[in-house]
Amino acid sequence: MSTRRSGRVPADERSVVSTVRGLPAWSAVLLAVAVTLTGVAIDSLSGGLGTGFTVGYFLGCLVAVLAVSRRALFVAGIQPPLIMSVLVPMASVIAGAGLTAAAFSRSQMISLVLPLATRFPLMLTTTLVVVAIALIRAFVLEPRSPRPVAVRRQRAAPAHARR
Fold it and tell me: I need a labelling partner for 60 at 20 to 30 A (CA). Which of 15, 42, 113, 152 fits?
């Protein structure tokens, strides 16, 4: 957490706390995935994805959008559906002891897609909350100051026109 001489972090590098430098995009994704996988690990004791996954997924994405730097808000906003679409089928494959020879059979595909479809409301709610926070951070909390317009100089007439 380094700051400039004035003690303030530049606007594009701030987290939600203006005196704290935000995380880069890649580490925000890792943070959300790590917290979600912690929830998956907690739920692995019971044998399925339940409350631990739900809480871990929501909190991981929420903490990521709050901790990310302002320039990486886009990544934090689009990561909830991507994390869900990768981790839920992966957890289903692991819980089902891997893919069998009939990996692309109808029943195998349904067993991979069904857990994802049943968690769609969670994914939608998390995505809407994260995008709303990202938009508030980007446009309401501290909008960017407009760039100064360059002052136009009046150009002197060319030498051949001054006669």
Answer: 113
Helix H or strand E segment including 26: helix 25-44
Residue with tokens 């990768």: 86
* Ramachandran quadrant class, 3 (left: phi over 0; alpha: psi -120 to 50; beta: rest): beta
**Selected residue with higher pLDDT from 85 and 3:** 85
Spacing of C-alpha 116 from chain mean position: 19
What is the C-alpha to C-alpha distance for residues 20 and 9, in angstroms, rounded to an integer?
7
User: Between vectors from CA 60 to CA 82 and to CA 21, what angle results, nearest 5°?
Assistant: 105
The encoded tokens of residue 8 equal 């303030």
Reduced to 3 states, what is the DSSP secondary structure of residue 56?
Answer: helix
Largest Cα separation within the chain, whole Å, is 92
Distance separating alpha carbons of residues 63 and 1, to the nearest angstrom: 17
- All residues at 6 or more sequence positions from 110 whose CB lies less than 8 Å from its CB, including other chains: none
Pick from 59, 68, 69, 15: which is nearest to 37 by CA?
59
Neighbours of 62 (CB within 10 A): 18
Whether residue 149 is predicted with pLDDT greater than 80 in this model: the reply is: no
Residue 8 — pLDDT band, cuts 50, 70, 90?
A: confident
